[in-house]
Amino acid sequence: MKKNMARLVSLQGVCWAALLVAATPAGAADVAADGDVADEGATIVVTAQRREQKLLDVPVAVTALGEQALKDKQVNDVLDLENVVPGLKVSLFSTAPKITIRGVGSEAYNYGGDPGVAFHANGVYIGRPEAQRGAFFDLERVEVLRGPQGTLYGRNTTGGAINLIYRRPTQEFEAVLSGSYGNYDAYEASAVVNGGLSDTISARLGFKREYNKGYTRNAMPGGRRLDDQDNYTLRGQLLFEPTDRFELLLLGEYYHNGRRGPGRKFIGGPDGAPTAAELPPYNGKPLVPYDVRAVVSTLEPKEDMDFWSVTARARYAFEAFDLVSLSSYRDSRYGNRDDEGDGLDVDFSTLNINNDIWQFSQEVQLVSKPGALNWILGLYYFQEDGGFDRAIPFFKPNITLFNGGNVKTESYAAFGHFDYRLSPLVELFGGVRYSKDRKTMSEFLRFDGIPFAGNNTGRDSWGAVTWDAGVQFHVTPGSMIFAKASRGFKSGGFNTGALQTSSFDPEKVTSFEGGVKGAYLNGGVQFSLVGFYSNYRDMQLVQVVDFATSFNNAGRSTIKGVEFEGSVRPVRGLTFDLTMAYTDARLKEYMSQDAARPAKGLQNLAGNRLPNVPELKFNLGATYVADLSSAGKLRFNTSYYWEDRIYFDAFNEAQSSQGAVGRVDASITYVSPDQSLEVSLWGKNLTNELVRGYVSVLTAQIGSPHLLFWDPPRTYGVRVTKSF
């Protein structure tokens, strides 16, 4: 703790010293003369508050990445966001991103619960994490809001929100072709075409294909590589603008993933104890050491994902306000076959999963015209309905577990938000929301071969009033300070697969936040420093009990910390940037028993760190743009990303953790004089660090085997992009 605080203080000192040096008159001419890099953050327009504002004028903790920043930082997937956003951690559990912000996140991997971080694609909430990865394509920008949300967005959350903003159709013709090839036979190809079909109709069509043969070796004889990619995305948009007052945007998307699947790395039973598959009659062996990128899978995994959606966004401009309607339907089908429960060289068990789920959302907003008083009023409806089934055969004795059912979620909400400029220097803002969520569930559980069967149904509902309020002071034309308080809520749910008749409780948080933001010298120096404190009640935490992923509520948790984002351009063409977060996220009241270590009995976990949040993390980057005169430009970019130890569950066992680790990414890009051609050499995790993305602890009924999922190894390649 003391060492991390010392690191934090020293890093802040270095950052502020750099800002002071850059702000000297000698550097002013160089900074003002080159607007190629650092001024993007100062001028980027965001819609974090549902209206267009400059990023540094927004009185909330928000990170925005424009198109150039996404390229420079090599953000190609939701997993890459954690490298550049303070307070954000993204782990890959099997096929689903596990997203946390400030220690609050998506613990739900059964359909009876909801994520703590909302994921929006072009304004539409995506409820299931498996469906989030195909959306990173043809983006205008990405916005990440930290802290409770609800008075501005349709779906309420306690942790924060990730918003992907797609590039819209325009009347101007545009075509972009891009291709990349790298190690592991990885290739990526994409194409986008845009233009007007008539004076009032514009269209945009895009396609993206990704493939690699697999990062992880299967040590079984004849086994093919795992942790592969094999997916494609298709997106089409039509924009109708028949009058100056009315527009209608229609959007359709399809995503398919047909890869083999993740490599589940066996790293032993709890504290070295043997698992059931290691004991007679199986006598399984791991074949390879625990610290190499190789797994043992007797069955070749297979994934089959199909997600499609249609969205309609209509806007009509009245004299005093805009009326906006956002309607969306999404269908998600996911099948998975995997070697489950052992990670050894024997046929112990397999896992077969099929999920079929759909969601519908409707949001209506009244949005005021810009002025001294800005306001938004909204109504929101969300429905999610779907079935799930899984079969887990065990070979000795020959029995099979069958589990399946259906979960339906309905959510209704009304919300409003305002900001009012009291004077040229002072603004007040606030909002309120009422939410009502209802869940119904039915399921079955049985074992073939033994006389056991169970059925369960459940119904429950939860409601809450949440709010936020704050004040903003414009200290100078280039800086402001703000303070806010907020109340967040996430509904309860059901532990599907556990045949529990009772629900788990909703999650509530009261949060306080304050910060300072500034931009000087035409954006050559810019920064954001935010401090926060959050008090959580009944935080929803998860562990595997019997054969089900089960939630229980931690009595109380506190999260406090500080986040910094800044950039400085000391000379023409050279930019340094730093993002950093110190987060002290700990349980205060929580008694629980570790199903993997029952001998420890009921444990008092007060003082333990929350899962999936490092105490300290930072990203230090540099970009240099070399002007080749009439020959074009060269862009050099490098980033060093470091994070402290993280634990993957609330018991804080070393076996289920990842130690402190740093990674290096870099790229060199040639840009032609007319900017129509880009050729890049790129590399990620260049020091080839072996990083645990997540550790899953399976049921104690088979000895609680610990299986880890690796983050990608060193990757590198070349990318060519041509614009017309």
From TrEMBL:
SUPFAM superfamilies: Porins
Signal sequence segment: 1-28
Pfam families the UniProt entry points to: Plug, TonB_dep_Rec_b-barrel
Domain (TonB-dependent receptor-like beta-barrel): residue spans on this chain: 282-686
Family membership noted in the UniProt record: Belongs to the TonB-dependent receptor family.
Keyword Acetylation assigned: no
Protein name, entry field: TonB-dependent receptor
Domain TonB-dependent receptor plug: 55-161
Location of this chain's protein in the cell: Cell outer membrane
Keyword Membrane: yes
Assigned keywords, A-Z: Cell outer membrane, Ion transport, Iron, Iron transport, Membrane, Receptor, Signal, TonB box, Transmembrane, Transmembrane beta strand, Transport
InterPro entries: Beta-barrel_TonB, Beta-barrel_TonB_sf, Plug_dom, TonB-dep_rcpt-like
Membrane-topology descriptor: Multi-pass membrane protein
